[in-house]
Amino acid sequence: MMNNTRNDTSNLNHSISMDGSDVTEEVYFIILIVANVVIANILSLLGIMGSILNIIILSHHKMQDTTNVVLLAISVCDLIYSLTQVSLNFSLSSFLINFNLAQWATVIHALCIDQINYLAVLTSIHLVTLVSIERMVAVCFPFHVARFLTISRVKIIIVSMLCCNILIISPEFMKAKLFYIEYNNVTLPALKYQDSFVQNIYAYIKYYITINFLVFVCCPFLVISLCTFVTIFHISITSKTKETLSSKEAIAKRKKEMKSVKIVLIICVLIVFLVLIPFFVQQMLIYIIKIQISQKMSIIAFSIVNILVQINSSFNFVIYVTGSPKFKKTVVNLFFLK
Fold it and tell me: Where is the G-protein coupled receptors family 1 profile domain (predicted)?
């Protein structure tokens, strides 16, 4: 979705320039092969395996609490994202194999899979925002969190969030239709914009930019940053008040608090620095500053941002194991003790 809209916008505004500073063909193809064939597919495989393990472990009856319900939903989104990334990686690199194959792969991905990919990313970021809010409430109001946030309420919030995101990206499902062309005596698929999309193209671009900056970047960034700051600040303040308790009791309570928020803080930091900030910079350069870069450099920039997003979703299993003793214990009980 990001790739398709980026190309649409650049074509409409004629802002892409091919100048002498562009990368050479050899360097361009090497970067594409390394990024989209090697690194991206390795990360997709790790993301699929890690997400499946996360779903198995977080679905265990001993892991049922509000935080883990949200983490389970995040793992489902990461699994869907990693699976659709395989399609994206193939569509970006299939031209190295065969033009006809690349055309089929690109059209199929752009027609239906790309929207699912974007929905998974968008929902995953909003779920991380939700879990940062949940942990802040748990730390700041430990005696009231069970009343405010029950498992059933969290599930309702997750479903509502998913429905809102589907509604937000619904224009993507209706902007193009499939038709066939003849090329070198071979019938190939192609996409044609709907008449309603062409007539309202500039309104769509403004809508897309607004959604990206507000819903995808700005709001999650502000909420996650604020909740993370408040959580850390509250822990540092309460740790001083515990000095009046016996040292063992104070240390035990502080360790318990830190274990409950460490995994959330790591995920929040990763989502901010690997996803939100790079994507914000990319969008700002393209749409706000309107910097003119070649199409090759634009595709390379997209590949880099794409890899950063995959890194964030591929190593959650490692983060959960190292950051949550309960998660690690469940892994040992399920896969090793038997």
Answer: 50-320
